[in-house]
Write a structure and sequence with these properties.
- It is built from 17 helices and 24 strands.
- By secondary structure, the protein is of the alpha/beta class.
- The protein has four domains: 248 residues, Rossmann fold (3-Layer(aba) Sandwich); 39 residues, no CATH class; 116 residues, Trna Endonuclease, Chain: A, domain 1 (3-Layer(aba) Sandwich); 108 residues, Immunoglobulin-like, CATH 2.60.40.
- The strands form five sheets. It has a nine-stranded mixed beta sheet, sandwiched between helices. Strands 11-12-13-14-15 form a five-stranded mixed beta sheet, sandwiched between helices.
- The two termini are 39 Å apart.
- The site of S-adenosylmethionine has 21 residues, from α3 and β8.
């Protein structure tokens, strides 16, 4: 299943099976300066920053090398890596990491991605390109040249269209070459310098709002060239999820990893919009579901999940074998690997009666195993629940002391880490300034119903609140117009009618809450 995983990629990569990935693209933090490198500013990122920066370039190279070695391990023999970097460390990365791990003989391309951006240097040539190293794991790497062909001349046209200062460029290639290329209707494979892909624009629709976001077109070319539909693409410095979004669009399977909860959430929102979850008309029925793995599980999600799904899952998390039967199981939801029955209760404050019923179920279920465990002074059964009441705890103690029967009580939290999602409340203030909205009070204008409303989001969490995100035209899929709001305050004007506004809050564990406000505006503001 496609996955977004929170964590240091080193730890996460170690858990991925050898030779299972077709394509790795990474855009790791560059070896540059502090301010530029901090993308999200959360705790995870600050730790990672110190981890790789503390000892200068050698330390950075070691830091990256151990991770790239894991990427090499998990790539299939036909797989390849694209490592995106820039002048700060590209020479070191090639020689000390990629040539060492992949081997010089598996070096395929050094792609130069050129872009334009305002430059304010006077003592050198402005650095306006990134380097993307392309290595195969072996000589049998994939390369789909037909998928990425571009019309002859495309870069030149693209460049000239950028206007200012670049219009003087001549059409590339001599007459003969141009003629040859025109005959070839398929176009040509782009050269190893890419000038036809622009950086994400300040006001572009793709833009999420942080400096290192890469354009979808760039990832499209990479993914099309080096993977096929159904292949698995991995990006373990995922950021805002460009690789993942493009891989999903191109029907690749994918794994996205980042140590920042914000990166995970932003990518999750992006994918939900992309897949048009529950959005009626534009829903992509072929979209594959994906899972999001944070460090902690949300209590409410587990607590109110489908009972059977929860039972199966928690038994597996415990290391046991779930019972596949949903009915007639005498309340035995699974077993340990040595056969001890497990019962799961998806509730809190389990009472004494549960213990007694479970005990008789175990005895009926397998009398011999029960007697053997009892004689060996081993637990005859295990109950997993969110919490246990006093009566249950006392009953378990009594059984042990007076009848030598051991029943083990386990809380869900002792098996998987749990946290409560942040609380969220939205306050509305009508701040309509009638005097301002009706320009000339002497003219009998009918007030057009435009209302200005201040929204105040108040959230609380056991950990730091990371950001609020707002969708002022909510249609069932959360599609934030404002993504990184640290203040929780927004003002908007609304015309008469019904409006749905959705607000999300994300905390430092990546746990979220959502509140949907329905507004009716008809001269006054009503909250439904
Ligand atoms: C340059 S950004 C990637 C941008 C991305 N290519 C995009 O288009 O949005 C680098 C990312 O690496 C993440 N990162 C840094 N150290 C990491 C680590 N040890 N494990 C996983 N992710 C890490 C940061 O949180 C950041 O999101």
């Amino acid at each position: 299943m496609n996955k977004l995983i929170l964590g240091d990629c080193l730890e996460v990569l170690k858990k991925i099976e050898t030779e299972t990935i077709d394509l790795v693209y990474i855009d790791p933090p560059f070896f540059s300066n502090r301010n530029y490198e901090i993308v999200w500013g959360d705790e995870g990122e600050k730790r990672s920053f110190q981890d790789r920066w503390s000892g200068g370039i050698d330390h950075y190279i070691d830091w990256l090398k151990t991770r790239v070695a894991e990427m090499h391990r998990i790539l299939k023999p036909t797989g390849s890596i694209f490592l995106h970097c820039d002048w700060h460390a590209n020479a070191y990365i090639k020689v000390f990491i990629l040539d060492k791990i992949f081997g010089q003989h598996n070096f395929i391309n050094e792609i130069i991605w050129c872009y334009t951006a305002p430059a304010n240097v006077k003592n050198r040539f402005p650095q306006k390109h990134d380097t993307i190293f392309f290595y195969g794991k072996s000589k049998d790497y994939h390369f789909n040249s037909d998928e990425i062909k571009i019309p002859y001349n495309q870069e030149t046209v693209a460049r000239t269209n950028r206007g200012a200062g670049l219009t003087g460029l001549k059409v590339k290639g001599n007459a003969e070459e141009r003629h040859k290329n025109r005959l070839d209707n398929d176009g040509k494979i782009p050269e190893d310098y890419w000038v036809d892909i622009f950086r994400v624009q300040g006001n572009g629709s793709e833009r999420i709002g942080y400096p290192t976001q890469k354009p979808e077109k760039l990832l499209e070319r990479i993914i099309l060239s080096a993977s096929n539909e159904g292949d698995t693409v991995l990006d373990c410095f995922m950021g805002g999820g460009t690789t993942i979004a493009v891989a999903d669009k191109l029907k690749r399977n994918w794994i996205g990893i980042d140590q920042s909860p914000q990166a995970i959430k932003v990518t999750e929102f992006r994918l939900n919009v992309l897949q048009g979850k529950i959005l009626g008309k534009s829903v992509d029925i072929f979209a594959k579901p994906f899972s999001v793995q944070l460090h902690k599980y949300d209590y409410d999600t587990l607590r109110y999940q489908d009972a059977f799904e929860f039972e199966t899952w928690i038994v597996q998390q415990y290391g046991g074998l779930p019972n596949v039967k949903q009915k007639g199981d005498l309340g035995i939801d699974g077993k340990t690997t040595t056969g001890t029955p497990i019962q799961v209760k998806r509730s809190d404050n389990i009472g004494r009666n549960v213990i007694d019923n479970f005990l008789s179920a175990i005895q009926r279920h397998d009398k011999i195993a029960y007697e053997r465990n009892k004689a060996d002074k081993k637990p005859v059964g295990i109950i997993i629940a969110f919490s246990f009441g006093k009566g249950a705890v006392q009953e378990v103690a009594r059984l042990k002391n007076s009848e030598n029967i051991i029943i083990e009580l386990l809380t869900v939290e002792s098996i998987v880490p749990i946290a409560k999602k942040p609380s969220l409340e939205i306050k509305l203030v009508d701040t309509t300034d009638l005097a301002k909205d009706i320009p000339d009070k002497n003219v009998s204008t009918i007030w057009d119903g435009l209302k200005e409303i201040l929204f105040e989001a108040h959230a609380k969490s056991e950990v730091e609140i990371q950001f609020f995100a707002w969708d002022f035209n909510y249609q069932g899929v959360f599609n934030p117009e404002i993504l990184f709001d640290k203040t929780g305050k927004q003002t908007r004007k609304f015309s008469a009618g019904h409006h749905k506004i959705a607000v999300k809050v994300v905390d430092g564990e990546g746990l979220e809450n959502i509140e949907i406000v329905e507004l009716k505006i008809n001269g006054k503001v009503e909250r439904k």
